[in-house]
Design brief:
Blueprint (H helix, E strand, L loop, with lengths): L2 E4 L5 H12 L3 E6 L6 H4 L1 H5 L2 E6 L5 H11 L6 E4 L16 H21 L1 H6 L4 E5 L15 H4 L2 H20 L6 E6 L21 H13 L9 E3 L8
Parallel strand pairs: 1-2, 1-4, 2-3, 4-5, 5-6, 6-7
Helix pairs in contact: 1-9, 4-5, 5-8
The structure holds NADP nicotinamide-adenine-dinucleotide phosphate.
NADP nicotinamide-adenine-dinucleotide phosphate (NAP) binds next to helix 1.
Length: 242
């Protein structure tokens, strides 16, 4: 049976991934900050018939990452999905930067996936899949302007920097852990209707559902191979320029 660990599994894209993997009878380890409040994640196992274990993880907290590692011990993990992310502070424009907000955004979006990968490296080595996945964003591309025409998007300096740094780190792990057989996917999930994009706000222009995004992500992970490890792609498999 495939074991999949997902961070930020209590809502949005992470919850959709947990639901679909559970429906495929994978063993899902759904990580979230507040398990007691993860009502929808708790409902995944009974409604899918799959096996879902819920574990506490605040990705921004090194002690929490160490506790997760302690709880998992040597359990093999086939697919590790670093999905948890934040959009960052209100103030992150060409005119003004919220310094603490910037640092927090980098910590959650770029540093945590590397620290979690390092903490669980041995679990990945013990798995059959050996797949390390980062849910990135085309906002991390330096050569395309994915926010053209969106004044609020254009201001996301911290978010953009965090996803560019995430891509760089994951690309490094694809290179440096290749000898262990670890494959790395760097995936843009599309413009998805979640809390992050204001799914509840009138006029949210996010174009696809979390379910559609998760279907594409799962397909990309299934076809991940040495020749695509470290590539930057969207959920449909379209390459994204760095
Ligand atoms: N939605 C889009 O259009 C879009 C586009 C490109 C990339 N992405 C990326 O896709 C990923 C998922 O986004 P989403 O749209 O599903 O967002 P979302 O609905 O806002 O969900 C974010 C998830 O991340 C978790 N999280 C945030 N900080 C955390 C922390 N310190 N420790 C543990 N979990 C934490 C949240 O947990 P809590 O409930 O505890 O806050 C929540 O489960 C993110 O990496 C995002 O950057 C999304």
């Amino acid at each position: 049976m495939t074991t999949v660990l997902i961070t930020g599994a209590n809502r949005g894209i992470g919850l959709a991934l947990a639901r679909q993997y559970a429906a495929e009878r994978a063993d899902v380890i759904g990580c979230c900050r507040e398990p007691a409040r993860a009502k929808e994640l708790k409902e995944v196992a009974p409604t899918s018939g799959g096996h879902v274990q819920i574990m506490q993880l605040d990705v921004s907290d090194e002690a929490s990452i160490a506790s997760l590692k302690g709880a998992l011990s040597n359990q093999p993990i086939d697919i590790l999905i670093n999905n948890a992310g934040i959009v960052g502070p209100e103030t992150q424009s060409a005119d003004c930067i919220d310094v603490e907000g910037w640092i927090k955004t980098l910590r959650v979006n770029a540093l945590a996936p590397i620290l979690i990968g390092q903490a669980l490296r041995d679990n990945l080595r013990r798995g059959f899949g050996k797949k390390l996945v980062a849910i990135s964003s085309d906002a991390g591309s330096i050569s395309i302007d994915c926010y053209a025409g969106s004044p609020s998007g254009r201001n996301r300096y911290a978010y953009r920097a965090s996803k560019a740094a995430l891509n760089n780190g994951m690309r490094g792990l694809a290179r440096d852990w290749a000898d262990d057989g670890v494959l790395v996917a760097i995936l843009n999930p599309g413009f998805v209707r979640t809390d992050m994009t204001g799914r509840r706000a009138a006029g949210s222009s996010a174009s696809i559902s979390p379910e559609e995004s998760a279907r594409g992500i799962i397909r990309r992970i299934a076809e991940l191979a040495p020749n695509t490890s470290g590539a930057f792609q969207d959920y449909r498999g379209e390459p994204i320029p760095w």
